[in-house]
Amino acid sequence: MAPESETEQRGPLERIRLASTGPARNVEAEAVWIGGDLLVYIFGGEAPHIGAVAAATPRPSLRDPHERSATASVLTFVGHKEDDLAKQAAERLAAALDTNVVVTAGIHWDDLPADDIEQVMANGRELIQELIARLRK
Asked: How far apart are the C-alpha atoms of 109 and 76, rounded to whole Å?
């Protein structure tokens, strides 16, 4: 299913908010343009928080200089596991939108089994794909 979304204009900062609509373990994302740069936060679960932060910048692909890619740096708070989601999101957004991107991610449910963790990641990937489509308009 496609994510639910809303767009809100607040002065010079356009905000876009999306929510995944998967079968379980749904997450949300909000994106804000800050000048030409993009700030995205991904959150969900019983205790949303900031568990990891990724900053990405676009660059030519190392395999094919005609393609866009991105390089990211990640900071992860001790004991948190959102680093993969934050890094993937930042790199995909930076490459697709050709802009600097910062992503924070903080999603928490107690005692998730491996299948549910994969569902959270799938929902996060769905949100990022939809966010790219919305921001390219």
From this structure: 18
What residue spans of the chain are helical by DSSP H? Answer: 83-97, 114-136
| Interatomic CA distance for residues 44 and 109, integer angstroms | 8
* Closest of 15, 74, 21 to residue 50, by C-alpha: 74
DSSP letter, residue 27: E
Q: Where on the phi/psi map is residue 119: left (φ > 0), alpha (ψ -120 to 50), or beta? A: alpha
Query: Would you place residue 6 in the very low, low, confident or very high pLDDT band (cuts 50, 70, 90)?
Result: low
Rounded (10°) angle between helices 114-136 and 83-97: 20
pLDDT (tens digit per residue) in 14-48: 789 999 887 889 899 999 999 899 999 999 999 99
* Domain 4-115+128-136 = CATH 3.30.230.100: yes
Q: Which residues have C-beta within 8 Å of that of residue 41, sequence separation ≥ 6?
A: 29, 30, 50, 103, 104, 105, 106
Asked whether the whole model's pTM tops 0.70, one would answer yes
Spatial separation of the C-alpha atoms in residues 126 and 133, rounded to whole Å: 11
